[in-house]
Specification:
Chain lengths: 377, 341
């Protein structure tokens, strides 16, 4: 019924994608200094009384054909970042460059072109499909808006259902409420693929699914990526899933990128104290190795009034005076996709942190924790 | 927990559920949510019920508190908690048992906490209602409870309203309310599912410590195998309204026997080789309105044979209280070694 599509449906794309404009080494997406603050209004005049720094000076790039995983605690700005990339909300600042072309600027590509090339799949598979349309029509809708004839769009939609492992004759005419969660998420993926995008942003796209169904959808994503030359941004709070699917990983904390690098280097030797604590909090399926002391105490601070300097300092075991005074930066190296960098004073030999230059692995897990904890409260 | 060489006679279970069946009846259909579930929980023991969405985990647990809509629910079997025969309790008696003998924490604490009262007032109110102590004494107890569940700055948080707390703190405040009368049995329905990994582990560690300290029995529902590995003494795996595997946490998670448990382990992403597909279970769970006879997992099972569709398998005894219900148990052991190692 929901069997994996077999390899004969699709042939691998020949090397040298027709759509490739900038060349192989040109990142598919470059994000520079992206910022989004949400105003908080209050008082009798409904004036802006504060702001949530949801995405604050975020820069990174996504290489062609890779999967970039994004992790971080709830509220750290992952979904806001995804929406900004999709231009689903206006940004305060920042530039986006898609395959060498600036987006929505005089000499660049238009928003319409960007949207064709970049599609998004959300967690909430229920609300994102029109309940009154058979799913084949939902999938065909995007192409018809972009000028494809209805009959042609439907043929394409049926082909896409096939690709995501749903038999069009059985499933095409069904309404969303007649599908299981996993089937709905397959339809969402098919719909996102309808305009032949080059990049998919998957925001918690498998999080609501049961494990057995999640595995099917992850396999499907791998299959589609291999055969359609896709690039993924994969947002998830499941650290095991991110490790499995990603080539590189970006770690966010309170609206900022705190670490980015190749997946194995991040998982084997994290450089930021937050990343280490986050990874240590992931539970293993092994009752013989239980976690006895929590890797991190407290909850993330309020994003309305983030701590000065390093935003992690209120929970960090190594926080020192410098961490309160100065904001650690990722630095220029972050633009190089082969680099593994973290925004922590410890990683900077000249920042003035007493442990500067040492690797995290050589430091005690609990340093001056009580002081950091006191500051957090 | 249970030491087989221990000469002293085993304690009486805190919870005894026998042949529980729960059907939800409506004009259109009957949902057969729970189909002959039996289990025990010893005092001071944590039983985790794991299984996919719709497998009947919450319905099983909610039955112990009579939380189903009376009119539409057909429920048979027996349930005992402490000295209480749950099926025989009147509404009034059940109310007295709730909170004092059995209490419950949910995934979404906002449904359990009253938004118009401070956390402190809610805990104190529960303590006063059940123990008849003064307001001052109840408030002191509330502070103690907030310290116990490791809420930072507990004095300040007692004066806070639920919406003023983060998700993790709210979850801990709900635990404080649930523990306020030292229940013998705590029912926890996915209490950490909505939390971040860093906060989830804090809550699990606190819960485990308190459970040991109070000698409290816990039934913990989760679909996360990692959570079960972290907190359970015993694990029951449910599929389509039945317990298809049961045993100590080590037996079930390290030596699983049922093809569904094996499939669940294999399809849960935990460090698999990135270059290979995950060994996913094909298909999806059955519709609980139209359950076929036989093993409900048969349509998705690699090892299924015609006999699997004929009747529901009797329990296989794997020793040490480890049980599975599968006709093909002889075939699972080599399959397991290939699938998991
Ligand atoms: N439209 C909005 N107006 C005001 N604040 C917002 C808005 N959208 C998001 N926020 C705030 O911005 C911050 C970042 O939210 P975002 O949804 O991006 O987080 P997230 O990392 O996706 O979290 P989760 O893991 O829970 O999905 C949060 O503090 C959130 O409350
Ligand atoms: N009040 C009700 N009326 C009708 N059907 C119900 C009712 N409550 C639960 N069900 C059905 O009973 C079955 C078992 O549901 P239950 O809530 O126990 O699943 P679960 O294992 O807890 O799943 P989840 O992991 O999604 O919470 C489902 O098919 C559900 O739709
Ligand atoms: S050491 Fe300082 S800069 Fe590094 S994470 Fe801790 S607080 Fe931030
Ligand atoms: Mg989000
Ligand atoms: Mg449930």
């Amino acid at each position: 019924m929901t069997a994996q599509p077999t390899e004969r449906h699709l042939q691998p794309v020949p090397p040298g994608d027709n759509n490739d404009r900038g060349g192989k080494a040109q990142p598919l997406l470059i994000v520079q200094n992206l910022q989004k603050y949400f105003p908080i209004r209050g008082g009798v005049l409904n004036r802006k009384v504060a702001e949530v720094k949801a995405v604050d000076d975020v820069s990174f790039s996504v290489m062609k054909g890779e999967t970039l995983g994004i992790v971080g605690e709830s509220g750290c700005g992952k979904s806001t970042l995804a929406r900004l990339l999709m231009h689903l909300m206006p940004r305060d600042k920042g530039t986006l460059v898609f395959d060498g072309d600036p987006v929505d600027e005089p000499h660049g590509i238009t928003l319409r072109e960007l949207r064709r090339n970049m599609q998004m799949v959300f967690q909430d598979s229920y609300s994102s499909l029109n309940p009154r349309l058979p799913v084949v029509d939902s999938i065909a809708y995007g192409p018809t808006v972009h000028g494809v004839a209805t009959s042609e769009a439907k043929i394409k939609a049926r082909g896409l259902l096939e690709k995501v492992g749903l038999r069009p004759d059985l499933f095409g005419g069904r309404y969303p409420h007649e599908l299981s969660g996993g089937q709905k998420q397959r339809v969402n993926i098919a719909r996102a693929l309808a305009l032949d995008p080059r990049m998919l942003i998957l925001d918690e796209a498998v999080s609501a699914l049961d494990k057995s169904v999640e595995a099917q959808v992850l396999n499907l994503l791998g299959y589609l990526k291999r055969h359609l030359n896709l690039t993924y941004i994969f947002i998830s709070h499941d650290l095991h899933v991110v490790q499995y699917i990603s080539d590189r990983v970006l770690v966010m904390y309170l609206g900022q990128v705190v670490e980015i690098g190749p997946v194995d280097r991040i998982y084997n030797a994290p450089k930021h104290p937050y990343t280490r604590a986050l990874l240590q909090s992931a539970l293993e399926i092994d009752p013989e190795h239980r976690i006895e002391t929590p890797p991190l105490v407290g909850d993330p601070p309020n994003p309305i009034n983030p701590p000065s300097g390093c935003r992690f300092r209120t929970r960090c075991p190594y926080a020192e005076a410098i961490c309160e005074r100065e904001t650690p930066k990722l630095g220029k190296a972050a633009e190089n996709p082969a680099e593994h960098v973290a925004a922590c004073h410890i990683t900077n030999p000249v920042a003035g942190h007493s442990m500067a230059g040492r690797t995290l692995q050589s430091l005690p897990v609990e340093a001056s924790a009580p002081r950091a904890l006191a500051a957090a409260l | 927990m249970a030491d087989t060489n221990n000469p002293t006679p085993p304690k009486r279970p805190l919870v005894e559920v026998r042949d529980l069946n729960v059907n939800f009846v409506s004009r259109e259909a009957t949902v057969r949510a729970v189909n002959g579930v039996s289990f025990d929980v010893m005092p001071g023991e944590v039983l985790c019920i794991i299984g996919e969405s719709g497998s009947g985990k919450s319905v099983t647990m909610r039955s112990l508190m009579q939380l189903h809509p009376k009119k539409r629910t057909r429920i048979t079997g027996s349930m005992r908690v402490g000295d209480h025969d749950i099926m025989a309790l009147s509404d009034k008696e059940m109310n007295a048992v709730r909170g004092r003998v059995i209490s419950m924490v949910f995934q979404e604490p906002m449904t359990a906490l009253d938004p118009v009262y401070t956390i402190g007032d809610q805990i104190a109110e529960t303590v006063m209602r059940h123990e008849g102590v003064s307001k001052a004494a109840a408030m002191e107890r509330a502070l103690e409870l907030m310290q116990m569940v490791k809420v930072p700055s507990p004095e300040r948080r007692l004066k806070a309203y639920p919406h003023e707390l983060s998700g993790g703190l709210r979850q801990r405040a709900m635990m404080a309310v649930a523990l306020s009368c030292r229940p013998a049995l705590l029912l926890a329905d996915e209490p950490t599912t909505a939390l971040d990994a860093t906060v989830q582990i804090q809550v699990l560690i606190v819960l485990r410590k308190l459970q040991e300290q109070f000698g409290m029995g816990v039934i913990f529902v989760t679909h996360d195998l990692g959570v079960a590995a972290q907190i359970a003494d015993k694990v029951a795996v449910m599929y389509a309204g039945r317990i298809i595997e049961y045993g100590s946490v080590k037996d079930v998670l390290l030596k699983p026997k049922h093809p569904y448990t094996l499939g669940l382990m294999a399809s849960t992403v935990h460090g698999q080789n990135r270059d290979q597909d995950i060994d996913a279970i094909p298909g999806s769970p059955p519709d609980m309105r139209f359950l076929a006879p036989g093993c409900s997992f048969a349509p998705r099972c690699k090892l299924a044979q015609p006999e699997c569709l004929a009747s529901f398998p009797e329990p296989n005894d794997h020793g040490n209280g480890h049980m599975s219900r599968c006709f093909r148990t002889a075939a699972t052991t080599p399959a397991m070694e290939m699938g998991i190692a």
